[in-house]
Amino acid sequence: MKNDNFTKKELFLISQDKKLAKIIENNGSISFSRKKQDPFNNLVEIIISQFISTKAAEGIKKNILKSFNKKNFELKSFKNLNIDEIKTLGLSTNKAKSIKEVTNYFLQQNSQDRIFNLGQKQRELELLNLFGIGRWSVEMFEMFAIRNVNVFSSGDAALRSVMIEKKMVPKNSKLEKFEIYAERWSPFKTIASLHLWKTFD
């Protein structure tokens, strides 16, 4: 093995899937903190990232934060902005509308931390009810804000691309095929996904 300092989760994945094992061994260990992240900042970042490359998303994020003179997205920055004003930050109308909905959603809560105390299904239902928040966005939020170690997103094009390239799933397969294959990674699907993304990058 390239790296013998694998976590117990990675060793489990190596034992469960020979194809994934090669990827993990080539990547070396990847750390994944279980510390929950700021939910509002995370959702805004996810919305910005929808349908565009990581590089493009990072550029837009950097420009918006610079205009606010902030290191992270904060509720108070968007609280008094309307959709057109948010759009002028370099976003599409739909993304501006989505960020406004997310802003209003969190303003209605007693605490931003409330979302962490919801069960996963209830959390997903509430988020999916917001304009512009679909399944992929919810799954990214579950991974990177909630820090859930057992999430896989069949809607993520990069994950599907690597799975096809590594002959885990045939080309042109339905999303269900990717989800079925990913079940062998449970209960550490997120960790497997991190390794697939690293390979894609």
Q: Specify Rg, calculated over alpha carbons.
A: 18 Å
Write down the domain tally. 2
* CATH superfamily placement of the largest domain: Hypothetical protein, domain 2
Q: Judging by the overall fold, what is the CATH architecture of the largest domain? A: Orthogonal Bundle
| Percent range for β-strand residues | under 5%
- Alpha plus pi helix count: 13
What is the CATH class of the largest domain?
Mainly Alpha
Query: What is the overall pLDDT average?
Result: 96
Report the CATH topology name of the largest domain: Endonuclease III, domain 1
Overall structural class, as computed from helix and strand content, comes to: mainly alpha
Secondary structure tally: strands: 0
How would you sum up the major sheet? none
Q: What is the molecular shape?
A: elongated
List segments where confidence is low: pLDDT < 50 over at least 5 consecutive residues: none
Question: What is the terminal-to-terminal distance?
Answer: 21 Å
- Into which percent range does the helicity of residues fall? 55-70%
Order of helices and strands: HHHHHHHHHHHHH
